[in-house]
Amino acid sequence: MIRLIDSLSYSNRLRGMSPMWKCGFAAALFILSYGSHPPVQAAIFAWMIVWVVRYARIPLKAHMVMLGTACLFFIASVPALLIEIQPGSAVAPGSSMFVLWSRPYGSVFVTETGLHTAEALFMRAAACLSAVSFIMFTTPVAELFQVMKRLRVPALVLELMLITYRFLFILTETAHDLYTAQRARGGHNGFRGRLNDTAMLIVRLFVKTMHRYKGLSHGLVSRGFTEEIRLAPYRAGSVPVRYRLESGIGVAILLLLECWLRWRGIV
Fold first, then answer.
1. Which GO biological process entries does UniProt record here (predicted)?
2. What is the per-residue pLDDT for 45?
3. C-alpha to C-alpha distance for 264 and 267, rounded to whole angstroms
4. Domain limits, the chain
């Protein structure tokens, strides 16, 4: 997945636009998504799909797969939000929607409050993820580092992020090669065989990845690394007037909608 995102970030239709403008636009929508009402968050989610799929020409399947993969972490936390455990068999009237398990010494049920909380958190997570996905699919990581450098992010932090990003590719490539080699030798057959081969893969993955990481370090030193990784100079691309107008008007409408919901006292 990381290779697909990296490839699409270099080949999308919004690649030539100013990375600073794209980051500022996504950051504004991210902040608005975090503190707004669900209707505004739903509008942001739909609007970001238009930007990513229609304007940037990112395949809808790739976009949905990325959002779905990220939502798996939210799904894992849903039972803790929905399910309540109460000692005794008595459940307060109107406090639950569905009793899952009831005994004289305790009850397990789904509460209406938990359902509303899960719904609100899902809309917030989806809207924030859509804003982040706009940056992921339209701006290469090299340009993100340039933006962070202009924002005066410490050089040490940028170097650690750059090395970590490179380390992810080494990790995935090594894991793929080891898995392919095991399959070619008849591995991963049966449940017990998969467990044994997976354990061996994890051990060998760590050893081979550290070996390749040392090779990367030696390569940097041989090329004159002087304790500072120099980034390419920042290149400010132009932003079409159409996109400037649409983004400004869209953010203004979302802010007005949020103000109207707060004025009406809608939760």
1. cobalt ion transport
2. 93
3. 9
4. 1-139+251-266, 151-236
